[in-house]
Design goal:
The chain is mainly beta and 543 residues long. It is built from three helices and 53 strands. Helix content is 5%, strand content 44%. Strand 48 and strand 49 form a beta hairpin.
Length: 543
């Protein structure tokens, strides 16, 4: 007898009991035929015979067969939502069709798992609610891995008075994906569904997963969204989430330790104009978890121009203690990379966990607010940022006043870092780079600058301590600087020129972290306009 694969994401004890009773009542030959091939749910002996539309009423009742928890469409037709609900009252259910459109609410009052499985696309229309009571909700398109099925939640072109639709699991996991296993593979299509307009809102098509003014709420379960693919003559996205024409924003949320994960792979996107093949585009969308992690990962196609892994704007990301991470995993070696993009608008990120932006270039046109735990901006591929100017630019309004720390770059970064607007950090600030330019005012409890090139400033620097490391030269002579304690270089790794001025309060050369005093291979110039210059650790120069 073949192996038994228990279906769906959660292996709940009551589901185990129901499933085993059914399986053990079957003969061995039947059991082997029913189970074997699928990683989620029972095996499927034959492909579905047609498309399904789930309606509120008026559906046809004789166009499908039900066996071992699988409802398979025999021909293209419509089925009442109440039929689906009745089957769910008896246990977990997989609804299997070539394509599935949901036009009527499906209310599952039990904890049974519901899977909508299609070889092609899945559409859940605006104003439609699919809900369960602690049961998993799985939307599984392109199940034959033929790149023929995307998933669309809500419609860009829906009437402007339409309410947003909802997926509500009340504790169950919500899985939106495709391929062999929707938990790890992508909803993928080579043709968009047509629910987009090339003006105003909803201006670009998605070929993987699209959300328009939709609510996805797992109520304590985890949420997984996976999208990929696309062939178009216009800019294309693997995962797209934006407000509907009615102004409805997307809400993706859960409670407890439930995690939220979005993975968008645009590396296979092709189009004649060769431009804007992006991974994830998330605008007008609010993400939240009580204490779980939130992860956004996107990849663009480097064969085109204007290549970006993710674009985020006018949205929020919050968790009480879960880590929040954004990754642009694009191969940036081709030189066509335009960077992960934070578009104009207000973007807030709040958690007591870590906040991480990992991208080879971060293009920020937003008012970006980081609140809570330690924040990091660093490259994804290797140690150095990269764009046409080989630098990272902290631009517009980056507010980290409520973050416990901020680190920009990694040790070994050979690209330039420019802070060209006022930057405030609620704790220590660390910057790694070759050339460092502080053209905006910098305020932090402590500042650490690691440079192998030239560090300069025009904006003032305010910190209780300043650590200077690397072989670069440091010229920090703004007469409004306020620095408590200074240390630079170390034995065997001397700094270059060290020139520091402070305005008032004096300056002490002492111990800052692992650095002690000043060790330089060049000139040392220290000046205070008011207050004492105190030297409590050695000053050494080899010049």
């Amino acid at each position: 007898m073949g192996d038994i694969t228990i279906p769906l994401v959660h292996r709940k004890s009551q589901f185990f009991s129901r499933t085993l009773k059914v399986l053990l009542s079957l003969a061995s030959a039947s059991l082997a035929a029913v189970l074997a091939s699928s990683s989620i749910g029972p095996a499927f002996a034959s492909a579905p015979g047609g498309a399904l539309t789930i309606v509120a009423s008026g559906g046809v009742t004789n166009t499908y067969t039900v066996a071992s928890g699988v409802m398979t469409m025999n021909s293209t037709s419509s089925v009442d939502a109440s039929v689906i609900e009745g089957l769910l009252s008896s246990g977990d259910l997989v609804v299997y069709a070539t394509s599935i459109t949901v036009n009527g609410d499906v209310t599952n009052s039990s904890s049974s798992n519901l899977t909508l499985k299609a070889t092609e696309h899945i559409i859940v229309n605006s104003s439609v609610t699919i809900s369960s009571q602690n049961g998993d909700l799985v939307l599984w398109s392109d199940s034959d891995s033929s790149a023929g099925g995307s998933i669309e939640l809500g419609q860009c072109t829906a009437p402007v008075n339409a309410n947003g639709g909802r997926l509500i699991s009340n504790g169950g996991d919500i899985v939106i994906g495709g391929g062999a296993d929707p938990r790890v593979n992508f909803a993928t299509s080579r043709a968009f569904l047509g629910s987009w307009v090339n003006s105003g809102s909803c201006a670009k098509p998605s070929f993987g997963v699209a959300l328009y003014g939709f609510e996805v709420n797992a109520g304590g379960g985890s949420i997984s969204i996976r999208g990929s693919g696309g062939t178009s003559n216009v800019s294309t996205r693997a995962v797209l989430a934006e407000a509907s024409l009615a102004g409805e924003q997307n809400t993706i949320s859960t409670n407890g330790s439930g995690a939220i994960s979005v993975l968008a792979d645009g590396s296979a996107i092709t189009q004649p104009n060769n431009s804007s093949r992006w991974g994830a585009v998330l605008t007008g969308t609010n993400f939240s978890s009580s204490s779980g992690a939130i992860s956004i990962s996107g990849k663009g196609n480097p064969a085109g121009t204007n290549v970006r892994g993710f674009v985020i704007a006018s949205s929020s990301y919050s968790s009480s203690s879960g880590d929040i991470a954004f990754e642009d995993t694009t191969d940036t070696s081709s030189g066509t990379y335009s960077g992960a993009y934070i578009a104009s608008g207000t973007l807030s990120i709040s958690t007591s966990g870590s906040i991480t932006f990992r991208a080879d270039f971060l293009d920020n046109d937003s008012t970006l607010s980081l609140s809570g735990g330690p924040a990091v901006i660093e490259p994804f591929n290797g140690n150095s940022f990269r764009d046409t100017a080989q630098r990272i630019l902290l631009t517009e309004n980056l507010n980290a006043a409520s973050a416990t720390s901020l680190r920009v770059g990694k040790p070994g970064n050979t690209s330039k870092v420019t802070v060209d607007q006022a930057l405030t950090v609620g704790g220590p600030l660390t910057i790694h780079g070759q050339d460092l330019a502080l053209t905006g005012a910098v305020t932090a409890t402590a500042v650490s600058l690691a440079s192998t090139g030239a560090t300069t400033q025009t904006g003032k620097l305010s910190a209780s301590s300043l650590a200077l490391s690397g072989s670069g030269s440091f010229t920090l002579q703004n007469n409004q600087n306020t620095i408590g304690t200074l240390a630079a270089g170390a034995s065997g790794s001397a700094a270059g020129n060290v020139k520091v001025n402070v305005a008032s309060g004096g300056l002490a050369v002492g111990q800052v972290g692992a650095l002690s005093g000043i060790t330089s291979s060049g000139q040392i110039e220290l000046a205070t306009l008011s207050g004492d210059l105190s030297i409590t650790q050695p000053i050494v120069t080899t010049k």
